[in-house]
Protein: DUF1015 domain-containing protein
Amino acid sequence: MADPELPMPDGLVLRAFRGVRFAVDDLAEVTSPPYDLIGETGIRDLLDTHPNNVVRLILPGSDGHRYAEARETLRAWLSSGVLVADGTPAVYVYEQSGPGILQRGLIGDVGLVSPGRGTILPHEDVMPGPVADRLALMRTTEANLEPIFLLYEGRGGAATRLVDEVADSRPPLAEARTHDGIRHRLWAVTDPAELAALNADLRPRQALIADGHHRYATYLALQAEHHATARHAGTPGTTGGDSDRTRPGSGPVGGNSAAASAPGTGPWDFGLALLVDSDSYPPDLKAIHRVIPNLPLHEAVGRAKHSWQIHEHAGLTEGLTALREAPEPAFLLTDGDIAYLITDPVPDQVERAMPTDRSARWCALNTSVLAEFLLPEVWGMRDDEHSVRIVHHDSWAAARLARDTGGTAVLMNPLAVDDVLAVAAQGERVPRKSTSFGPKPRTGLLMRLLTLE
Structure:
């Protein structure tokens, strides 16, 4: 239940902030994918790419001092000029473009709203482990190091028109081309009239969390912590940490929306977010595959044959083609060599496994069938971070991981965007790691220090 004493904006609010950016020759070399898409090999590669790669902040060392290490690294880079804060608060236009890709949106401080208010809708459940990890990192660094990704139906409104006008006619503030061939460009919007117009357009709208559920949950947890501390101390509102109160540039930032100056609000009442109009820039929704270590493929198939139709395929390519054409729910099981498509589960068995308090649309999702029937009822395990490994997008990478761990990869088709939106709109959440919306914002292009506000 939401805390009635927390300040709540009266709609979707995107506040200007002083962005913190890298001052290096090749901006691409210091950026990274979002933290949860970087495996151990990826961390090593990024560390080797550049001594100031942002992975040192978002995924610091593995010992108990890693969060303090990130804080000290952040401070050192600010002191040395590797990182520099922009002088004027802005909402930033962000463009990603490449072969078959064009996405534009706005990066700013989004006003935090509890899910029950219906302004910012989650569509996935979160796990306590990742929330605790991001909470410790944000609390220690007093920074939002990478934006969450929000979608809204802009219907060609003033905010979308401003985004396109800026990107089409103004010189960018920063530009980088990453190794995946994507060009990233940033522009700063500082004009008070333009900021007022875009917020007037956004305020009545509703946003869906496309990526960053754990970080949004962390934003809310930090907000609650700081207001509880302020109430205990008998002081109104929240501020940044006292340890950095004398840092140059700290203190209130002017030129923001009315929500920023409302009584009782402070930097912890906002979180860094990319907001994209899904009408103008439809998202690319990809699947998230599972790998179950130490579950041999023959055993997985043997248990499944009592409740599913089994179709053997000679290899992964043939199996993936069959998966794309199969009616849902369907899954492709492989150990990297042979592949088995499983389809048409016994209806009565699936129905008995499904929660009675869920809608028919929720129960029909392939990830719901996976989480409630295939994993627990057929294979005797839960879809959690301890039993199941996650692989975003890449079917071949999942198959390789299955081979390396002596296990089974469970490959699936992506959910339909309409199904995700419909489930979220009626207050339900799809099972964890059901969706991977893209293209995701690149980490390291723009950061937010709460001590600057």
In short: Residues 238-263 have pLDDT under 50 and may be disordered.
